[in-house]
Amino acid sequence: MKVRILVSFKESVLDPQGQTVKHALHTLGYDFIKNVRQGKLFEIDLDGISEKELEKIIPEISDKVLTNPIIEKFTWERLDG
Amino acid sequence: MKFGIVVFPGSNCDRDTFHVCNHVLGHKTVYLWHKSHDLQDVDCVILPGGFSYGDYLRPGAIGKFSPLMNEVGEYADKGGLVLGICNGFQVLLELGLLPGAMLRNKNLKFLCQFVHLRLEDNKTAFTRKAKIGQILRMPIAHFDGNYYADPGILDELRKENRVILRYCDANGLVSEDNNVNGSAESIAGLINKKGNVMGLMPHPERCSEQILSSEDGRVIFESVIDFIHA
């Protein structure tokens, strides 16, 4: 099994890096870009667990390790269907 | 008294802190390796500055899983004094021993400079030798010191006088212009509800001797010594 986890700042948290990227894009003429949020991506291979366990474990490790839930949120998807 | 300095892989202020506690202030001091499970009966645990685990993932995010952090958590629960300096503060936030989190500095720069700080409360074990409103000149050296907490937490910190240090100018004025890293309410240091766990971004261990151009950091260590001996 292979999953991809995307971590980004919560909407309530300012993202100065995303803002800086947005300004850079505006400087290059891409004025139609309204907002940029920067985040982190994790691709994780797993073996020997059931689909049901996967549904439990990915949110668990995301909450416990991959994100700081005070400032970050996550979404995840299966990469192998 | 006896200080214990935790050493993580990537700590780089552990020796400076040891030097101040032991050579400058003359107290017994031991290093506490992060993989051990023994706090060696110290009277105060200090999590030093540095880049534990290279700041991988988030500053302090991996350090919080170090074996010794179980003992540090229990020690804090029992009322033991824990001081987190810079990266040590970030570890305390990740551990949940202090509320909130650190974001990247507002100007996206690594800030390495002296700053002025206003001391907001001297009824704590870490500040009892200082005066309220006293202006301390201490160095900072961090990339992620932009303190963030939910509005509810900020309210609580304010009402309970748990903000200990705020960034200010040389006259003690707190304003957005003097808020070097963009911290919520200019917070540079805070304490837990019980008053035994404190974290601060500035480095008191780098300004505890005149030869280093400021001795303002000494008051933090001297307060702890005074509290333990009281």
SSE arrangement:
The complex is a heterodimer of chains A (about 80) and B (about 230).
Chain A: E1 2-9, H1 16-27, E2 39-45, H2 51-66, E3 72-78
Antiparallel strand pairs in A: 1-2, 1-3
Chain B: E1 2-7, H1 14-24, E2 28-33, E3 44-47, H2 68-77, E4 81-85, H3 87-95, E5 101-103, E6 111-119, E7 135-142, E8 146-148, H4 151-159, E9 163-168, E10 187-191, E11 197-200, H5 218-229
Characterize the largest beta sheet of chain A: strand count, sense, and whether it forms a barrel. 3 strands, antiparallel
> Could you report the average pLDDT of chain B, rounded to the nearest whole number?
97
Molecular shape of chain B: globular
Low confidence ranges of chain B:
none
Q: What order do the strands of the largest sheet of chain A run in, or round the barrel if closed?
A: 2-1-3
Question: Any overview of this molecule?
Answer:
Chain A is α+β, with helices and mostly antiparallel strands and 81 residues long. Chain A has one domain: Phosphoribosylformylglycinamidine synthase subunit PurS (Mth169, Chain: A, 2-Layer Sandwich), CATH 3.30.1280. Chain A is built from two helices and three strands, in the order βαβαβ. Chain A has helices at 16-27, 51-66; strands at 2-9, 39-45, 72-78. The mean pLDDT of chain A is 95. Chain B is α/β, with parallel strands linked by helices and 230 residues long. Helix content of chain B is 22%, strand content 26%. Chain B is built from five helices and eleven strands; from the N terminus they run βαββαβαββββαβββα. In chain B, the strands form two sheets. In chain B, strands 2-1-3-4-11-10-9-6-7 form a nine-stranded mixed sheet, with helices on both faces. Chain B has a two-stranded antiparallel sheet with strand order 5-8. The longest helix of chain B has 12 residues, at 218-229. The mean pLDDT of chain B is 97. At the A-B interface, helix 1 of A face loops of B.
